[in-house]
Amino acid sequence: MACWEGDRAVRTVIITGIPGVGKTTILKEVEALAREQNIKLTILNFGTVVGELYKKSNMNLHRDELRRQPIDVQKKMQLKAARILAKKVRNGIFLIDTHMFIRTKSGFWPGLPDSILSILKPSLLVLVEASPEEIVKRREGDSTRMRDEMTMYDVMSDLDWARASASSCANKSGVPVKIVLNEPGKQREAANEILQSINELGG
Q1: Are 121 and 102 in contact (CB under 8 A)?
Q2: Which of 38, 81, 113, 167 is the most buried (most CB within 10 A)?
Q3: What's the average model confidence in pLDDT over 18-41?
Q4: Of 132, 108, 97, nearest in space to 21 by CA
Q5: What is the pLDDT of residues 108-162, one digit of tens each?
Q6: Angle formed by the axes of helices 23-36 and 187-199, to 10°?
Q7: How many whole angstroms separate alpha carbon 195 and alpha carbon 188?
Q8: CB atoms within 10 A of CB 173
Q9: Helix H or strand E segment including 14
Q10: 112-140: string of b/e by CB count within 10 Å (b at 16+)?
Q11: Distance, first Cα to last Cα, the chain
């Protein structure tokens, strides 16, 4: 389902996945494939916008420190970021990189509650997955992040929670969910799956 602005389709695709699935790598491949196929698309990062809002509030935090802020503060920043991103969406295809949920001190907090879905108005939800073993390996090898230590059970729980959250979001927004497996060495195939799903939306 594509939203319409004037006589052109506006396709907003929300790309999610738990930390360590390789979402950033997949998005780079999607961008490269789109260039090769002369498909104009724009990638927007929800977390980057949130980080900029914190900086404007004189809170220069590492991106992995954002989820450790009080929930009421995070909610305000989440809404502000969604409104900023919605204004950036114009004619064409827009991919918004964000999280289906966030682990906070208070527990699992939805990254895409009704309030955010109603602002972003997605046409498609994409959930990137990987094997639990591969996720643990990627997390351990990423020295740029300040990740919490997690067991294999924690990772499997996160994968289950992400699917449950995606299902809930699909039912609320009335749009399809595309689950894409990011296997080692097959990032291009995964990116191609995403582009094909976007093309199937029409418009």
Answers
A1: no
A2: 81
A3: 93
A4: 132
A5: 889 999 999 999 999 999 999 999 999 988 877 666 655 566 788 999 999 999 9
A6: 60
A7: 11
A8: 21
A9: strand 8-16
A10: bbeebbebbebbbbbbbbbbbebbbebbe
A11: 9
Burial label, 69 (beta-carbon count in 10 A; 0-12, 13-18, 19+): middle
Joined together, the tokens standing for residue 27 give 């998005």
Type of residue at 153 = Y
- Contact (Cβ atoms closer than 8 angstroms) between residue 16 and residue 127: yes
Short-list 103, 119, 122, CA closest to 166: 122
Mean pLDDT confidence for 92-98: 94
Partners of residue 116 on adjacent β-strands: none
The distance of Cα 155 from the centroid of its chain, to the nearest Å, equals 17
Angle between helices 46-56 and 71-88 (to 10 degrees): 120
Please give the model's pTM, rounded to 2 decimal places: 0.87
User: How far, in Å, CA of 135 to CA of 20, rounded?
Assistant: 5
> Where do the structural domains in the chain lie, given as residue ranges?
3-199
Two structure tokens written together for 29 = 């491949």
Could you please state the CATH topology (level 3) that the domain comprising 3-199 is classified under. Rossmann fold (3.40.50)
φ, ψ at 117 (rounded to 5°): -60, -40
CA distances from 185 to 15, 124, 141, 155 (A): 20, 25, 16, 21
pLDDT at 28 over 80: yes
Work out the burial of residue 17: count CB atoms within 10 Å of its CB; fewer than 13 is exposed, 13-18 middle, 19 or more buried. buried
